[in-house]
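User: My collaborator sent over this chain with a note saying "see what the structure looks like." That's all I know about it. Can you take a look?
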Amino acid sequence: MRTALNDALKSAMKEKDSLAVSTLRLIHAALKDRDIAARGKGNCDGIGDDEILSLLQSMIKQRRESIEAYKKGHRMELAEREAGEIAVIERFLPQQMSEDEISEAVGGVLAELEATTLKDMGKVMAALKERYPGRMDFGKASAQVKDKLS
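Assistant: Without extra context I'll predict from the sequence alone. Here is the result:
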């Protein structure tokens, strides 16, 4: 994953793609911050690919929230820039699961863990995050789990 990010940055610099360069530099900075935090916990190699995928998903979530705020403030040019950054980040994520696939996965985990109340939500979400890192929108999954346990 790190190699792909580095290669993409080099390529974007050669192509003079300023949006991709700035976005990839933001990813590298966030990655470096997480690596430094991991060293404090005894992990000298930095974070793994699963954590990188999680980082990228959180960056996308932040940008989606920013887009909503910019649209409310009638700042369409900033919303478009955020959307462009999302497109750059999404190149490094695996194919995202559809609503139906998420629903099927949630149903399977609920049945497997025999979850019946909202108290079980934490262990259901932990199982989903372990099984589908980088592929599932956990915000949507959380809403489905909550609906099914209510």
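A starting point for your reply to your collaborator: The CA atoms of residues 102 and 141 lie 6 Å apart.
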